[in-house]
Design a protein that fits this description.
ACP_syn_III_C; 3-oxoacyl-[acyl-carrier-protein] synthase 3; Peroxisomal Thiolase, Chain A, domain 1; nine-stranded mixed β-sheet; 3-oxoacyl-[acyl-carrier-protein] synthase activity; Thiolase-like
């Protein structure tokens, strides 16, 4: 049986940003709340390229370095807010790259989609006898569908835009993919959604913003439930990979409010410098773990043999963590 690897990856980060001052004006919140509590100095937004445009351009940039390999599978694991509805991004990427005889699939689990995709693609790679390569792409423009006037949506004010493309292989790579842990709690499945399903269609409906329907249980208990599930999936993935939390060199975590990010690290018993807080990027949906990984590389936090945990959660609600190890 082979191993699964992350060979390489690329990011697309828009060059246009909005800062905490602009968000404060838009939302009506004090500037210090946006900057310090929500943890947003600024966040990138994209208004020219579509979700599939970003996915395709990032994939092309990555694959331009690996023109001699054959891609067996392309998986889109990004936002459901796509260019079109009832439509898949993976075939569009395949057509754009001119790939032949390639299996394409869209994987939807909101902001944890990229970790879910790694969890699903790993066994496919390790069980194949022949050399195999897969391309994972994620993209989001969900900053466009946040209702900034809705105080119930405050936890989504950090939504930003961008894309990632990740080349996977069972041959060799920069990071070896180890074990993962994913858990879903369906009690809050109808808290967040976009009202464009079949039961909401009528001639006068122009409602495209995300709806947030907090209930009493969500308001009272969700943060503690979320904390417990984050801690569970991180510890479980690390243990299954044969390590202890103290062995982990870096936690590549999605953006969340600053105090919660720090609380998770404290509960794990690790110092804050073993993660990078994405205060200048906001929450780029399923791109976040790879954005954080890239920042860690840029800041010399990762070396050969380093153990890294990619961590995310998505509305619905699902929490996920997967362990990778730098091998070269």
């Amino acid at each position: 049986m082979r191993n699964a690897y992350i060979v390489d990856y690329e990011l697309y980060i828009p060059s246009t940003y909005i800062d905490y001052r602009s968000l404060a004006l838009e939302t009506g919140l004090p500037e210090w709340v946006v900057r310090d509590k929500l943890g947003i100095n600024r966040k990138p937004i994209e208004r020219s390229l579509s979700v599939s445009d970003m996915a395709k351009l990032t994939a092309k940039k990555l694959m331009s370095k690996y023109s001699n390999i054959k891609i067996d599978l392309v998986a889109y694991a990004g936002s459901d807010f796509k260019d079109k509805y009832v439509w898949d991004v993976a075939p569009d990427v395949i057509g754009y790259l001119g790939l032949d005889s390639t299996y394409g699939v869209d994987i939807s689990m909101q902001c944890v989609s990229s970790i879910v995709a790694l969890d699903l693609l790993k066994p496919r790679l390790i069980l194949r006898d022949e050399d195999s390569y897969a391309l994972l792409v994620s993209a989001t423009k969900q900053s466009m569908i946040v209702n900034y006037k809705d105080k119930a949506s405050t936890f989504m004010y950090d939504f930003s835009d961008g894309a990632a493309a990740v080349l996977l292989s069972n041959v060799d790579g920069r990071y070896k993919i180890l074990e993962s842990s994913i858990i879903t709690n369906g009690r809050f499945s109808n808290i967040v959604y976009q009202r464009l399903g079949e039961r909401f269609i009528n001639d006068n409906n122009q409602d495209y913003l995300l709806q947030v329907n907090r209930n009493e249980e969500f308001n009272k208990s969700f943060e503690e439930i979320s904390l417990g599930n984050f801690l569970y999936v991180i510890r479980n993935a690390v243990e299954k990979s044969g390590f202890e939390i103290s062995d982990v060199d870096y936690f590549a975590m999605l953006h969340m409010k600053r105090s919660f990010h720090e609380r998770i690290l404290r509960e794990l018993g690790v110092s804050l410098d073993r993660s990078i807080y994405l205060e200048d990027y906001g929450h780029m949906q399923a791109v976040d773990p790879f954005l954080s990984l890239w920042l860690a590389e840029q800041n010399d936090k990762i070396r050969k043999d380093s153990i890294i945990v990619l961590v995310a959660a998505g509305t619905g609600w699902t929490w996920g963590a997967i362990v990778i190890q730098r091998v070269k």
